[in-house]
């Protein structure tokens, strides 16, 4: 166990995880620290106490003790003894032999891991934002979308309660756009570790593809640098999802684990997009998460068969355009916090969506263009979808760029974009056909 469980939420937010002053406070054994430090020494061109400490994300005093132990074991030598941070080391033959054996056991050579107990405590401590999302903040998060007020109220309740959301609707009604903006209404940043250690096995948690560093404050205090402060993460998974992706990912080459996506989304939002179109059956996937959704804990399996308990502390959004009765049963729906269905926009809402999209893209236009477009929908009895203004304007922009003109809307432009978007037959005109016949 590390040294975090006595801390309050306010202390963590104000000061961050406290810097360990003794090796015992890291929760990691001295043998594990020595092995990890030796890997860092081996990887550096000119290893010093400072550079090894930077790699381990530990205080200089602790790293100096660890390196001295490696020196006593005749695994490394001191090449230049100077101020504590500048003492230079080099590998000895016995050290190289030890490193080779270590890499066969695990190739992990990153920051010092934290314990599973400390990780679990921190995730539960930070799961709910300290500041509740207000109606004003929710409206700002969705300000670029045109949504019914009743849906904004539902989304506000979802964000405040951190409950799950089952989001349905026809294709093109904006489900993905809504799901992606839910996370931006959650207030504050969280601390996550670079890695977790369990029984000398390492699970890498921090992922620069999923995690964005939070801006540093001017009053940044000293903290345990094994933890990194990030914005609340948002992870989106879609059709590529398999059941294996929901468990620990073991690398047979590197000999350590990568945390699954639901662990990487802890403290933030997990969006399962296009539910029902994954490479795993929908029933199997939902059965996998029935208990985590209800109990806020998940169980992961290590390659040796051992199961570990980890927090399941994220807001989960399931988004689908399929009929919910075809892909889920009542047992699952009972465990969902909220359910919402997105409807097709009214003509007035569609016009507002088009107006905002046109302004954001820099088009010059007047309301007559919107009225002309609405008449086309009415004449063809085509349902209006929230995604179509953006798509039609992209087609018009392509035409303007191709013909070398400024971004402008006209009935003719709308007609061409309409044909290119919804599809049309390209026929030769009559005069051209006659000229071919004469030739």
Describe the structure in your own words.
The model has no long low-confidence stretch (mean pLDDT 89). With 439 residues, the chain is α/β, with parallel strands linked by helices. A 5-stranded mixed beta sheet has the order 3-6-7-11-10. A hairpin with a 6-residue loop joins strand 10 and strand 11. It folds into 3 domains: 84 residues, Winged helix-like DNA-binding domain superfamily/Winged helix DNA-binding domain (Arc Repressor Mutant, subunit A, Orthogonal Bundle); 225 residues, Rossmann fold; 76 residues.
What is the fold's blueprint, element by element?
Layout: H1 9-15, H2 30-43, H3 49-56, H4 60-72, E1 76-80, E2 88-91, H5 93-105, E3 114-115, H6 116-126, H7 135-141, H8 149-161, E4 165-169, H9 175-182, E5 189-193, E6 195-198, E7 201-204, E8 227-231, E9 234-237, E10 249-250, E11 257-258, H10 261-264, E12 269-272, H11 282-295, E13 297-301, E14 307-311, E15 315-320, H12 324-327, H13 330-335, E16 338-342, H14 347-361, H15 367-380, H16 388-403, H17 411-422, H18 430-438
Parallel strand pairs: 3-6, 4-15, 4-16, 7-11, 9-12, 12-15
Antiparallel strand pairs: 1-2, 5-8, 6-7, 10-11, 13-14
Helix pairs in contact: 2-4, 2-5, 3-4, 14-15, 14-16, 16-17
């Amino acid at each position: 166990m590390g040294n975090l469980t006595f801390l309050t939420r306010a202390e963590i937010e104000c000061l961050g995880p406290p810097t360990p002053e003794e090796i015992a406070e890291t929760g990691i054994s001295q043998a594990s620290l020595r092995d990890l430090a030796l890997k860092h020494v081996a990887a550096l061109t000119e290893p010093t106490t400072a550079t090894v400490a930077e790699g381990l994300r530990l205080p200089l005093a602790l790293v100096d003790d660890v390196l001295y132990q490696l020196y006593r074991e005749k695994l490394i030598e001191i090449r230049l003894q100077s101020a504590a941070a500048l003492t230079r080391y080099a590998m000895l033959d016995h050290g190289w032999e030890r490193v080779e054996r270590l890499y066969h056991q695990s190739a992990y050579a990153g920051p010092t891991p934290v314990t599973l107990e400390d990780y679990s405590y921190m995730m539960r401590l930070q799961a709910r934002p300290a500041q509740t999302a207000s109606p004003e903040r929710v409206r700002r998060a969705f300000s670029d979308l045109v949504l019914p007020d009743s849906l904004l109220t539902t989304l506000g309740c979802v964000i405040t309660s951190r409950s799950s959301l089952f989001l349905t609707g026809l294709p093109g009604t904006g489900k993905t756009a809504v799901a992606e903006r839910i996370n931006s209404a959650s207030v504050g940043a969280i601390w996550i570790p670079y890695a977790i250690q369990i029984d000398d096995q390492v699970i890498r948690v921090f992922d620069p593809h999923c995690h964005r560093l939070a801006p540093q404050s001017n009053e940044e205090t000293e903290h345990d640098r094994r933890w990194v402060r990030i914005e609340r993460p948002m992870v989106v998974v879609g059709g590529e999802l398999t059941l294996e992706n929901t468990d620990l990912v073991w690398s047979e080459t590197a000999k350590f684990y990568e945390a699954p996506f639901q662990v990487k989304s802890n403290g933030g939002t997990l969006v399962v997009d296009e539910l029902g179109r994954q490479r795993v059956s929908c029933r199997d996937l939902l059965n996998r998460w029935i208990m985590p959704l209800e109990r806020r804990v998940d169980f992961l399996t290590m390659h040796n068969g051992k199961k570990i308990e980890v927090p399941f502390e994220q807001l989960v959004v399931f988004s689908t355009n399929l009929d919910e009765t075809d892909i889920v049963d009542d047992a699952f729906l009972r465990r969902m916090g909220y359910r919402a269905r997105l409807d097709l926009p009214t003509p007035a809402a569609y016009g507002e969506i088009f107006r905002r999209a046109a302004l954001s893209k820099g088009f010059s236009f007047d309301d007559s263009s919107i009225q002309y477009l609405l008449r086309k929908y009415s004449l063809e009895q085509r349902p209006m979808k929230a995604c179509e203004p953006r798509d039609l304007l992209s087609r018009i922009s392509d035409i303007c760029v191709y013909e070398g003109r400024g971004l402008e809307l006209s009935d003719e432009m709308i007609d061409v974009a309409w044909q290119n978007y919804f599809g049309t037959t390209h026929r030769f005109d009559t005069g051209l056909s006659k000229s071919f016949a004469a030739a």
